[in-house]
Structure formats: structure tokens, C-alpha cells
Amino acid sequence: MSLLRLATAFSGIGAIEHALKRMRVKHELVFACDNDPHVKQSYFANYDMDGSRWFDLVQNIDGKKFKGKVDLLVGGTPCQSFSLVGKRRGFKDARGTLFYEFARLVDEIKPKAFIFENVKGLLSHDSGKTWEVIQNTFKELGYNYYSQVLNAKEYGIPQNRERLFVVGFRKNKDYKFPNPVELKIAMQDLLDDSIDSKYYLPEKGIQFVTSQKNLDKKYTQINGRVALCQKANQQFNWHGDFVFEPAGKVPEKYFLSDKVAKYVMATGTKNFYSKPETDLAVARPLLATMAKMHRAGVDNYVTRSGRIRKLSPRECLRLMGFDDTFKIVVSDTQIYRQTGNSIVVNVLMGVLRNMGISATKIDL
Questions:
Q1: How far apart are CA 191 and CA 184, in angstroms?
Q2: Active-site amino acid positions
Q3: Domain boundaries, position 269
Q4: pLDDT over 90 (residue 352)
Q5: What is the pLDDT of residue 298?
Q6: Burial class for 191, CB neighbours closer than 10 Å (0-12, 13-18, 19+)
């Protein structure tokens, strides 16, 4: 089985790397790049990377050194203003932008394929001129490319997150983006305290269940490997199987004070109105600025026993398709930012499969 040679620009916390890991695709990281030292800290903690293959600035990458050594190049640049001079609106018109740097790497490295990701608004940015430049640039570089807006909620993740994906191939290859799949989980299924409080025992019930006499007589069992024989009325008299969870599974710091809760549940000002809603089945798009706790018409909040809390960083990572093997090694503020800037892993997995990448073959 062949090895996929991967390079990434504007790498973030490695969504494509995590997608390949989840797909069990053998791959080699040729290089990665990001100008945020906190991102670098997260990346190095989670992937096989060293300083010789890491670049802080994309402008410092000499793509010619990697020509013929990369199968797949992946990146997504900020949707910044283009300075369009002249009528051609192609590769040269993109100079001075971060997109130009990505296109330059495609031109110099000539990977077999690339994935370019960006916000949906890129299509209408600067009255469509930005998207025109990007399309013409990929054509000039000689790549057969396909583009489509994909929503995370249509690929197994309960988050309403639309992003533009562009997939390009050096060879003439037909490509179809993955078909939407039925969403089978809700945001609540990814929360650490998703169990309704009514299923937790009161103090008297805890005393009964943990009684050594009842445990010895097999009236009750805690965290058992094989369940006791269930009885029709066991839920009413505290008999049967129970699961112990350590107290404070979600730290207190994620719960909002009364003052902050009042703020986030407000509708906003006359110039900006947002309908405050909590406990959504499908999450709103995760924002890089969510550490600031925007109102409940913008950010995601859940209620527990009458209290409002924000999502924890781990829960946000799950809503981006990162499983719990991902190590959090930076502050909450930084991981919120990194998560909000990332790409949904499940969407990338679908894109990769349709490109011809799997655990058993790589056909680019």
C-alpha cells in the first residue's frame, strides 16, 4: 500500500491530518506551516512534526525544493481584500495576498492534488472578483478543479457550518463531492453532561445503592461488566445497575454567572438583533472569537438544572470532528480560537474518500 505525502499551509490544528488518522490512511507529513505560536504548540503535541519541516511564515517556503515530493497540498487562507490591477484577474493579480502564496506553492510544488477551503462568503467577496481571480488562477496553473459549498450538518456533525471546498487534480480526473448523509446525532450527544439531571440519584438513593448489604445481595451494582437481571420496577425502587460519574464532569468555570447569563440571553441592540436560543440540536457555526461569549443568538449555550453554560473546548472539538485523542495543551482562549478556525474533519473525510484516498489505496 502506498504512502500519502501530505503538505499543509495555514495548517491550524491539523484537520486534514486528523481526518487521515481517523481514516487510518498511512501518510507522511512533508511540511506544515502556521504563524501562530499557540497553533504550533497544539500541532506538535498531536502530530509527527519537527522543526525542520515546520514554517512559521508561508512566504518562507521555497516550493521548488518540494517539487515532486508532495501528493496532496491542503490549505485555507483568510478572505482578505484583493488589490486587483489590470484586466486579466488571474495569478499575477493575486500577488500580495495569502491566497497568492498558496497558489505559488501549488505552482512550484506541483502536487498531484490540492484541497483549498474557505468561507462561503468568498464567492461573493468584492462583488465576485475575488472568486474570479481564484478560479482563473487554478486554471492558469493547469489544474482540473471542482468547487462546492458543503455544510457540516450534512456529513454527520451537528453544526450548521457552510464552507467552500475546492478540489484540484493535475491529471484529468472526474470528481464528485460526497453526497449528504442523514444526521443521526444532536449537539447534546457530544456534551459531557448530556444525561438529563432526572437520571441522577438523590442523596437517599445514593445511600441505598452504595450500601454494602445491597451490593452483596446483588440488589444493586455500580459500573458492572455484566448487567444484573433487570426487573420491571427497578427504576422506581433503586434496584439494578448504576453508573458512577465523578462529580463536576463539566468544570464550574464553564457555567455562566447570573450577570453574564443575562447578557448572553439578551436580544441585542436596535442595530443588531439576534434571537437568543440555547440547547440547539444543530449547533451554530463555531467562531474563532467564541471565548468572548457572544449573545445566545450567535454562540452556542446549553442549560443544565436551570443554569446556562458555554461549551467546553473538548465539546467544541467534537463538534469539529476531532475525537478525544486530540490533546489540548493550550489555554481555553487559544483552543477556542483554534477550533473555530479549523475545518470539520468529517467533511474532509468525505472529500478525501471521493478523491480516491482510503486506508487500502491512494489513487490521485
A1: 15
A2: 79
A3: 251-338
A4: yes
A5: 87
A6: buried
